[in-house]
Amino acid sequence: MKSFSLHSRLTPRSQLSKKEKNVQHTNPYLLYGYRNKYSKNESIVSIFQLHNETINIWSHFFCFVLTILFNLRVYFSNEYFQYLTFSEKMVYALFMLGCLCGYGNSTLLHVFDCISVTTSKFLLKVDLTGIVLMIVTGFHSFIYFIYFEFPTIRNIYMLMPVVLISILMFLTWVPQGFLVKFRWLRTVLITLLFGSGIIPSFHLLFLIPSPIRWSIFFSLALMFAVMTLGGLCYAFFLPERWIKIPIIYIFGHSHQWWHFLVAVATYLHYRSILLSIQYYVTNNPKIFYPN
């Protein structure tokens, strides 16, 4: 029986095969700290060991748990949420499920992608699906509540991402796995999908008379700024591209910053959705809310 060690069996990038570099470990500036050809049991044990995926695993697992706790709080104690019908609550629940898929799928990827290239390819597809669900359910929930007075506009905005989602899912799950092979392509398409929420975010300033629109807009604007920063870190391998010190291979590399900034952006979007629900409840003539 193998004894437990705080440090897992790590491999430098120079010892990875070309295929492993192109699929599993695509960051050319992350020179050390890789788990490679682990068994399933070794992968699970490595959750509690130090390597360049440790923070990635725990950050999104922590966010997965926080998502459950935050949303239980909404379901049981948010004063506006209680006025929603069952179907309206399900619109919000889709956002919660999207977040759980995003964080849960990401955690699985970072735990088990060290097993093999084949495993990594499949889990990357699962991870990309979670990211798409997280983005789409978030914007659909926000648009559903804030644009309730403008059903035609609401329907247009909710349908806008459908073509892009279809392309993303097709390119992800076709046997060729284009989004798995081409990092730049998935970065561009996910950025476009995320960016499809910019127009509805600005439009609400001109349609919604309530002062709450500014609070919603600033939450969304800050979210876009945070995600842009995270996208830049992810796309250009920052800061390890510039800061070449060994500790950054374990603590502080680009993917860890991406995870942190995604978590911050998700919280800001969560806040904007709750504000949208507040606006929906307090301005909907079909709901009796004692102002």
UniProtKB/TrEMBL annotation:
Q: Which Pfam families match?
A: HlyIII (PF03006)
Disordered, as annotated region:
1-21
PANTHER family registered for this protein in UniProt: ADIPONECTIN RECEPTOR PROTEIN, ADIPOR/PROGESTIN RECEPTOR-RELATED
Q: Give the protein family.
A: Belongs to the ADIPOR family.
User: Which keywords does the record carry?
Assistant: Membrane, Metal-binding, Receptor, Transmembrane, Transmembrane helix, Zinc
What name does the UniProt record give this protein?
Answer: Adiponectin receptor protein
Membrane topology term: Multi-pass membrane protein
Predominant location category: membrane
Question: Which InterPro entries does its entry note?
Answer: AdipoR/HlyIII-related
What is the source species? Anaeramoeba flamelloides
Provide the Gene Ontology terms for cellular component.
membrane
Entry's transmembrane regions:
57-76, 91-112, 124-150, 156-175, 187-208, 214-237, 257-281
Please list the residues that bind Zn(2+).
110, 255, 259
Q: Does the keyword Endoplasmic reticulum apply?
A: no
Q: Where in the cell is it found?
A: Membrane
Bias (Polar residues) occurs at: 1-15
Which terms in the Gene Ontology molecular function aspect does this entry carry? Answer: metal ion binding; signaling receptor activity
